[in-house]
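User: Just a sanity check before I run the rest of the batch. Below are the structure tokens for the first item. I only need the designed sequence back.
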């Protein structure tokens, strides 16, 4: 980014202030909501930092859709899975499975890195 702090840095600073400075002063009835906001901020920061390009490139190659947008790629893959084109034993099964694992790891790295053995 051209400016510092960038958006991810601002989110991290705001989250830190929320958790360290504001949360201790909130009534108990509002602390859960404050932690949810802090969690959403962390997810947004990780989402901004995530590099989806490799997973999208794999999907575009798998589906022979070099210019498709992410939503269209996911819809196309889902349709192929539903139709049986990617079932075990079909020529495209292994590649589809590999792409799905990559997508799942990407999504978990954003929403729940602990599931992958990472930190929040």
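Assistant: Here's the designed sequence for the first item:
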């Amino acid at each position: 980014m051209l400016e510092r702090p960038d958006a991810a840095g601002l989110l991290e600073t705001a989250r830190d202030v929320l958790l360290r400075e504001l949360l201790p002063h909130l009534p108990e009835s509002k602390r859960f909501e404050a932690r949810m906001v802090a969690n959403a901020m962390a997810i947004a920061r990780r989402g901004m930092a995530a590099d989806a390009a490799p997973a999208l490139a794999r999907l575009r190659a798998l589906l022979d859709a070099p210019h498709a947008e992410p939503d269209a790629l996911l819809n196309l893959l889902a349709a192929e899975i539903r139709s049986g084109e990617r079932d075990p034993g079909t020529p495209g099964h292994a590649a589809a499975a590999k792409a799905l694992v990559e997508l799942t790891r990407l999504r978990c790295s954003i929403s729940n890195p602990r599931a992958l053995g990472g930190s929040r």
